[in-house]
From TrEMBL:
Pfam families: AAA_3 (PF07726), AAA_lid_2 (PF17863). The lineage of its organism: Bacteria, Bacillati, Actinomycetota, Actinomycetes, Frankiales. It comes from Pseudofrankia inefficax (strain DSM 45817 / CECT 9037 / DDB 130130 / EuI1c) (Frankia inefficax). Coiled coil: none annotated. InterPro entries: AAA+_ATPase, ATPase_AAA-3, CbbQ/NirQ/NorQ/GpvN, ChlI/MoxR_AAA_lid, P-loop_NTPase. Gene3D superfamilies: Magnesium chelatase subunit I, C-Terminal domain (1.10.8.80), P-loop containing nucleotide triphosphate hydrolases (3.40.50.300). SMART domains: AAA. Residues 45-185 form the AAA+ ATPase domain. This is ATPase associated with various cellular activities AAA_3. One of its GO terms (molecular function) is ATP hydrolysis activity. It comes from the Bacteria.
Amino acid sequence: MSYGTVTRELATRFKQDFDELVGLVSTSFFGSPEIVRMAIVCLAAEGHVLLDGIPGVGKTSLARAMARSAGGTVRRIQFTPDLLPTDITGSDFLDENRALQFRPGPLFSNIVLADEINRASPKTQSALLEAMQERQVTNSGYSYRLPRPFIVMATQNPKEFAGTYDLPEAEIDRFMMRIAISYPDDVSDEAAILGYNIEANEDESTDELQGGHTQLIESMIDTARRVILRPNLRAYIVDILRETRRMSVSKKEGGEGLLRLGVSPRGGVMLARAAQSWAISHGSPFVTDDHIKQVAPFVLTHRMLVDYGVAETGVTARDLLDDVLRTVRSPQHR
């Protein structure tokens, strides 16, 4: 990861573009403004986002609205138990000359809407791993690069629902953020969502959505990665990761045994990138410890697997993360 210098003027222009995107998305999604802002932060950081919640609360509506606002090529994949890996990555076929050719699958898009991702079998889910991390697909020994930007926006239903599979830890770790979407806060929000669904005249059945240019989002991605992240704040992120790993040391080994798994190095990189994007979305050309703390719940909690016995007592990953952020001293308090 490289860190450059972003001028105050460039940060202000980024914030204007960011707020415009928030406004566009909010016309189609009537949930919390914080959810919209955090989802676009993830988009500007070129990170994959997992939208979590029960059916009917607007997960797909948010993903579609973001895809249309960002532009580029957009494909929607409805994940089902009978979906095969080649249905999403692509497969070989014989052309008119009986030569073997590769037909790209729907992953070859700027934004991929993976709807109800945890309804597909683990084998099909694993087909996303290489694409999400390496941004390429391998078929018959040949690797094919995916377009840039490449962002997966996935929705999943609660695991208690019938016909769902748990996402493997390796796949969960590839999502920069997991954002939970719950019921609207009041009756007016519910009425807005119902009114939108009833009056919508766009073709919701198509798998290929109309997209525009990607110049704006590419520019935002490049700018966000140049936001200043000072060495002491990078060390602060490392200390946060170390504390989560300390929680994962078993009691037999002298630890607390609160977590089955702490945060990986990839999680630290994701936290840094998300903090950069969050900082400049507020017009700041540099990251502060507050920016890191504000995005940490969205970036880290799905990577902190709570011990089964601890979870039975009602303790959540968010509770443990709050303890971590209280324990680890930020640079301004050292």
